[in-house]
Structures are given as C-alpha cells and as structure tokens.
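TL;DR need structure tokens for one chain.
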Amino acid sequence: ARLMEPRTPQPKLRLEAISELRDCGVPVGVLVAPVIPGLTDYEMPEIIKKSFEAGALYAGYVMLRLPFGIK
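>> reply
TL;DR here they are.
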C-alpha cells in the first residue's frame, strides 16, 4: 500500500477504523480503486474478506481500463 499510496494510512489502520465505526453503529462500506489488472487484482479477495471481518457491510471496486495501445 505504501508504494502505491505513500501518504495514506496503512491497511491495518483502515481496518481498525472500520471496526471502530461499526462499534459506534455507523454503517461502513469499502471501495477499492483503481484495481490494476495484473498488478493489484490478485489482492481483491483478501481485501474484501478482511473488510467484511472488520465490519464492512458492502464493498466494491473500480477496475482500471487501459486503451489497447498501452501495455
């Protein structure tokens, strides 16, 4: 996470925030974006699993779509 998002909270802290909000009765969802095919897509099952374990009620993602000419 630090390589892709250097100034954001660590994933562990994000999951703790989900738990704390749910403990206070706040409905929480997770959105992962962008999911980069071949680079970050393999992480999705674990991210979704841990998000739901932390208390998220729903989750979604946005897949990055590149033009055919970019490889």
